[in-house]
Specification:
The chain has 418 residues and is an alpha/beta fold. Helix content is 66%, strand content 9%. Helix 4 (79-103) packs antiparallel against helix 5 (110-123) and helix 8 runs antiparallel to helix 9 (203-239). The structure holds guanosine-5'-triphosphate (GTP). It catalyses: 2 GTP = 3',3'-c-di-GMP + 2 diphosphate.
Length: 418
């Protein structure tokens, strides 16, 4: 049974009375609270731009309800007054969608929102819209429903896996809002614009104001939840990322490698570490200064990331030492990848003050072994191979374990250990 009918029944049995004017004032206050909450959250710390859209949306709702309360108090208003109430209301729903779009890194499209509000104002000039509230409801409900469902659909389709839980309440709220608007319109149409009383008052106004009050209260919570969860994710990402290169740090290495080691052990998949270190890096620092040293590190990581495209497990594990975790690849491909990495650094010198500065890297490769107890065992073998590459003249790839090297690569790569 529809919620509205349940409440009608209850109001008759229990004798509830909620007057529309009080409800509209309460909805305006709830909208003001949301505007203040979103605005303060933006100023206080979060600084997420979607908060600005949601502040504007809530302010439009507050204005719409405030004007609605004045109109109701004066019992009637000119059509321009009603047009402003409706345009602001639809603008508020557009603002909710704009905030969702910006949160998902899409353009908020406020230009379309302003056009929509202007079109709503202009539509009140039509004979049809000048008539009974039922006609306006029939005209505008599909737009509000589309805005509500559009926001829900975007959140559902474009949510990252780790943000799903925080997005779900707003998705549900937007869908319920669209359903509520459709149910309200259907009841109005079914009773030809004159349904029985609702909670002791006029159905059209009382149900609309009550729905608005509930929507504003819940939207405040849903939007705040999304923003605070986003902030938590950003902090977590920052704690796992190296500031200079944007590569993952040692803490992230521990999390990712522990998870992948267990999975590879279970599935019997291959797992490799490629470690590499910039050769003679200290002289670059000493000669050109730390700033150029930092640029050299970024130069090498950018080149490596291009060669290792598709592998996002790239780690900075020391000052100028890096590791790449590769899972499920053939040993031959991993060795070829390590060689391409070395070649890319040789082929692309760093430019300092317009002059090329040659750079090279030494690379070590090791694979998961049947006796390994932990991922650190593979990494330390890759480090042994890297040390071997350094000892044997640098600018070369050494692979731990001759069995890891394919026959085709044996000529170019050096094997270390058993
Ligand atoms: N600019 C800059 N230098 C760093 C950073 N981290 C470590 N270093 C420097 O990197 C240098 C590493 O020097 P070494 O370990 O002697 O290695 P190397 O000179 O590259 O020699 P080999 O590795 O043996 O080829 C040290 O001078 C560190 O101060 C950083 O983030 N930025």
């Amino acid at each position: 049974m529809n919620n509205s009918f349940i409440l009608m029944e209850l109001s008759i049995q229990v004798g509830w009375r909620l007057d529309a004017f009080t409800l509209i004032v309460a909805a305006a206050l709830a909208a003001l609270t949301m505007a203040a909450s979103m605005g303060l959250l933006y100023l206080a710390s979060a600084r997420q731009a979607c908060l600005v859209d949601w502040t504007v949306a809530a302010a439009l709702f507050a204005l719409s309800n405030g004007l609605g309360a004045i109109g109701l108090h004066q019992q009637a208003g000119p059509i321009l007054f009603i047009a402003c109430v409706n345009a602001l209301h639809i603008g508020g729903h557009f603002g909710m969608l704009a905030g969702v779009r910006r949160h998902l890194h899409l353009a908020p499209g406020w230009r379309w929102g302003v056009l929509l509000m202007a079109a709503v104002l202009a539509a009140h000039g039509l004979m049809f819209a000048r008539g009974a509230p039922l006609y306006r409801l029939a005209l505008f409900t599909p737009f509000v429903g589309a805005l509500n469902l559009g926001a829900a659909w975007l959140l559902w389709r474009r949510s990252e896996r780790e943000a799903c839980a925080a997005h779900t309440p707003l998705i549900v709220l937007q869908v319920l809002s669209a359903l509520q608007q459709a149910a309200r319109m259907a009841i109005m149409l079914a009773y030809d614009g004159r349904p029985p009383g609702f909670l002791g008052g006029d159905f059209f106004r009382t149900s609309g104001a009550l729905a608005m009050l509930v929507y504003m209260s819940l939207a405040t919570m849903c939007c705040a939840l999304i923003v605070s969860h986003q902030q938590t994710l950003a902090l977590r990402r920052a704690s796992l990322t190296d500031v200079l290169t944007g590569w993952l740090n040692r803490r992230a290495l521990h999390d990712v490698a522990t998870r992948d080691f267990r999975r590879c052990r279970r599935n019997g998949s291959a797992m490799f570490f490629i470690t590499f270190d910039i050769d003679h890096f200290k002289p670059i620092n000493d000669r050109y200064g730390h700033g150029v040293g930092d640029a050299a590190i970024c130069h090498v990581t950018a080149l490596s990331a291009r060669v290792l495209r598709g592998y996002d497990a790239l780690f900075r594990i020391g000052g100028e030492e890096f590791a790449v975790l590769v899972v499920g690849e053939h040993a031959g491909n991993v060795c070829a990848m390590a060689e391409r990495l070395r070649e890319a650094v040789v082929a692309t010198p760093l430019t300092v003050e317009g002059k090329p500065v040659a750079m090279t890297v030494s690379v070590g490769v090791a694979a998961l072994d049947a006796h390994d107890q932990k991922w650190e065992d593979i990494l330390s073998r890759a480090d042994v191979a890297l040390y071997h590459a350094k000892q044997n003249g640098r600018n070369r790839v050494s692979v731990h374990g001759s069995d890891v090297i394919g026959r085709g690569q044996a000529a170019r790569l050096q094997a270390v250990g058993a």
